[in-house]
Design goal:
globular; binds magnesium ion; Undecaprenyl pyrophosphate synthetase; binds 3-methylbut-3-enyl trihydrogen diphosphate
Length: about 250
């Protein structure tokens, strides 16, 4: 993974990770039930997916439901689950026609059989698509991702497939989710909170973090453009000095 470049020539991120936050407050402001905010949020999700596909961004990872979101009132959880089923049903064929490859990360075993089937079918249908890779984090938690990776790794050590001394950051990284794509370059969180909320904690180690007050259903094309232009102004140092990075860029490395 180390040979993967972090920016394209155009300075666009290759991989964007999004915490789509603020649906509930959007609905509250309108004296509507929270689920209305989640429904409105689907439109914003469709917009960002289309924009990423148009701009040839390679990977988009969206946080749809965290492993902690089960703590919400049962009525909200079940309405979100129903919305997942209906949204997958309504959108997957269109995404397939746009050459989007859909993958889910997180523990899907807690979902209903019906939802698990929709998820598996969406992945199967789009698995050979070569356009945008869309990762949907559903019942996902970053800490659990790392624990799961450790278990797989320990199992491989126990079976003598790898030795204790072979364990490196890259090796452990090859067991966490999204190990087949570069780490996110840009993280966007709407809704005003400045936290990670147990999203991709391993993968975000060197990601540029962008927080915006706009509530997710209100996140428009121009808001996405703003996030991208903020990103292109970042100097990514990866531990080096700013001067080293400038010299590196001038020498074309
Ligand atoms: C994010 O919006 C969507 C999910 C967590 C499913 P919220 O529902 O968290 O919206 P706020 O933060 O309450 O406004
Ligand atoms: C993070 O948002 C999860 C998703 C957007 C799916 P939350 O609204 O659940 O995060 P906290 O609880 O405010 O940290
Ligand atoms: Mg929230």
């Amino acid at each position: 993974m180390s040979e993967v470049q972090h920016n394209t020539a155009a300075g666009l991120p290759q991989h964007i990770a999004v915490v789509m936050d603020g649906n509930g407050r959007w609905a509250n402001q309108r004296h509507m039930p929270r689920v209305a905010g989640h429904k409105a949020g689907v439109n914003a999700t469709r917009r960002i997916v289309e924009n990423c596909a148009k701009k040839n961004i390679k990977v988009l990872t969206i946080f749809a439901f965290s492993s902690e979101n089960w703590r919400r009132p049962e009525t909200e959880v079940s309405s979100i689950m129903a919305l997942f089923v209906s949204t997958i049903g309504a959108e997957v064929k269109k995404l397939h026609n746009k050459n989007v490859c859909i993958r889910f990360i997180g523990d899907r075993s807690r979902f209903s059989q019906k939802l698990q089937k929709s998820i598996n079918d969406a992945e199967q249908l789009t698995m050979h698509n070569t356009g945008l890779r869309l990762n949907i984090a559903a019942n996902y938690g970053g800490r659990n991702d790392i624990v799961h990776a450790c278990k797989l790794l320990i199992n491989d050590v126990a079976q003598n497939k790898i030795t204790f001394d072979e364990i490196t950051e890259d090796l452990l990284g090859s067991y966490v989710s999204l190990n087949d794509v570069p780490a996110p370059d840009l993280f966007i969180r709407t809704g005003g909170e400045q936290r990670i909320s147990n999203f991709l904690i391993w993968q975000l180690a060197y990601t540029e973090l962008y927080f915006v007050d706009t509530l997710w259903p209100d996140f428009l094309d121009e808001d996405f453009e703003q996030a991208l232009s903020w990103f292109t102004g970042r100097q990514r140092r990866f531990g080096k000095t700013g001067q080293q990075v400038i010299e590196q860029q001038m020498s074309g490395n």
